[in-house]
Design a protein that fits this description.
globular; binds zinc ion
Length: 118
């Protein structure tokens, strides 16, 4: 069995989300939220996703605009490229990409966390 080497995914997993600020700006919070930044498989445009609620936010300026990702149902057209048959990319955007992207404000920390391991 081989261990997949996906440097980008590893970095993305170290993202720390500021649930408070997401909530303050109108995001739905359930208490056991699992946020991630996902990318359009076609254009790499970024979306904020809460896997616990299957909630997809597509407008960093307006958290009231969101849709639910339901198994077997098509997603609304990608807000970035207009693609109709898009999916979340299997490669999560890396930390640097997120930090310089439209969703940078949802991150609690903008520093790398690898230093915590002594
Ligand atoms: Zn797209």
């Amino acid at each position: 069995m081989s261990i997949p080497l996906d440097f980008d995914a590893g970095l993305a997993m170290s993202l720390t989300f500021d649930v408070e600020i997401i909530s303050d700006r109108g995001g739905n919070i359930c208490g056991s939220d699992r946020f991630s930044i996902e990318a359009c498989s076609q254009c790499q445009g970024q979306y904020l996703y809460n896997d616990e609620l299957k909630d997809v936010y597509f407008d960093p300026e307006d958290m009231s605009r969101h849709f639910f990702k339901i198994e077997g149902m098509d997603l609304p057209p990608c807000r970035y490229c207009g693609g109709l048959n898009w999916q979340f990319s299997s490669n999560l955007p890396g930390q640097t990409v997120v930090q310089t992207g439209p969703w940078a404000w949802v991150l609690k920390s903008r520093v790398f966390t690898f230093d915590d391991i002594d």
